[in-house]
Every structure is written in structure tokens, then in C-alpha cells.
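Sequence and fold
=================
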Amino acid sequence: MTDTAPTLQVENLETHFFTKDGVAKAVDGVSFTVGRGEIMGLVGESGSGKSVTGFSVLGLVDPPGKVVGGKVLFQGQDLLSIKEEELRHLRGNRIAMIFQDPMMTLNPVLRVDTQMIETVQAHDASVSDDEARARSRDALGQVGIPSPEERLKAYPHQFSGGMRQRVAIAIALLNKPDLIIADEPTTALDVTIQGQILYEAQKLCRDTGTALIWITHDLAVIAGLADKISVMYAGRIVEQGGLGDVLDHPAHPYTCGLLGSVPGHNTRGKRLYQIPGMTPSLLKLPKGCAFKERCPHADAACETAPEITHPVEGRALRCAHPQVDLAGVAS
């Protein structure tokens, strides 16, 4: 483990689900790096493999799923090769995950203060009950929960779905982890609270050096949050780069389609653009490029699966027909 190592470096990660109908390659050769204080948006439609990627990093994939290849280097240490006990110590302390369903984080039969104080003291036994309670109260205030002192005494069922999600986010922020993986955590929240949480996430990364992976299908959220973006389709990264570079000059037809379907990108009065077709089953992926059956630019070259290329520094692309000349844009 070295001080110069990135917070997280994922190399050729492969996670397969072994079912009676065959093997589903949910994550197929995914690679990316997230540095200290950096925010990466992991974007794609439902079923693209982005959530399974997050679970794989934390070792939370259960049978019939299994991580079958690659490396997950956390500050230089391969998480796939360490013992479960060591990994459990890292979770919630130096690595935290915010789940899309808050009840995956919250215990329904324990008061919120009990759960938050235990979270603090599980990783630092020297913290007193009063100090842990104060930190818990402040964390609830950070995510916009009114009267946090009173709310600490409540049970999860006494909160709305959006409030439960905010409690789950507060728990993830408690120990100021080195890495947070957030799986669409603001989907159930109204726009005002979503904006507050995005602000707090950016502030945490800026002030403490926490690295953040924000998993979402919502490009509008990523546009105001991330430093860089990785676009996933059918278990693979199809495009990567700096946020402004990818949003201003998308090269993969799938990225272009995602951006085109954002309401703000459409001309007033015109029908909202939709990517034709559906995401293919991971059990029955087409030969060659997985996107070819939905792509208006597909031809014979797409019958061969494209390899990842790096047309310019800082950009990665998996496509035989890039929509822009990235070398020309860079120059």
C-alpha cells in the first residue's frame, strides 16, 4: 500500500451469474480509476451492470453471482485477495456504500440513534456515547433532516421513504470514509433535498479527500456533480473521460443516445428522443458489439466485438464508429 496509489483502481473486473439458463456476464472486463477527492459517475440503463460493479468492489456479490477475474485495488491493496474479516473491517469505516433501498442499511427494530452510534463505535471504540451521538446528530442535519436530536430517537418505520434514504446517506458519511459507492441514492428524494445532498457529497470529497463513485441513470445529476464519467452498456465500459469532454463531445452512439434523451437537450415542441429497442439479455448477447441492434450506425464492422481504445489521453472508447473525431477535438 502506497501514498501515491489511487484510492481505487479496478482492473478487468469480471462478475458472472451462474444460472440454470446459462452464464450471465454482468460485469465483463471493467476497468477504471478513482483518485483521492475525485468523483466518478458510473452511468447506464437498468441492467447495464453498474450496480453489480459497485457490489463487486465491496465483495457483496452473493451466489449465483461470483467475481471470477480482475483486481480491485483499494489504496494499492487487492480487495479480492484479502480475508472476509479484513474486508468487513474496511466496510463502513474506510469504504462505505449507499444502497438504492435504505432498508438494506437500516435495521427496522432498532432506533436510529442506536444504529448510528454503533456505526461510529464499531470502528473506533474510544469514542464515547455522547460524542458518537453528537456526530450522529450533525450527520442527520447535514442531509437535511429537521429536528435531528428528536429524530435520533425514532425507528425507521416512523420515517418516510425519502427520510429513510437520508438517514442511510448520513450513516455512510459518519466515519468520513476514503471511498463511498453511492447506488442511485437520491432517486426517491425531491429536487431540493437532492441538491443539498449533492452539495454535501462534493464538500466531503473536497474537504476530506474522499473518493466517490456515483451510480446513476440520470445524466443531469452527474453533470452537476462528477469530475469524470464512465458509461456502461451490457456489462462493459463503452466510453470514459472527463465530464466536460464526454458531455460536450460524446463519441459512442450509446452515450449520444443517453444525452439525446435528456429533456433539456430537445428542441421545444419536438418528441423526446428514445434509444430504439431494449437492453439485450446478458444470457443472450448478440455476436460482436452488444449495442449494434439498437445502433443506427451499425454495419459489418460491428460483427466483431470492439476492443477498448484510447484515441486521446484521458478518453477511452469501445466503438468501431465514433461520432466525433476525438483527436481533432483535442487539437
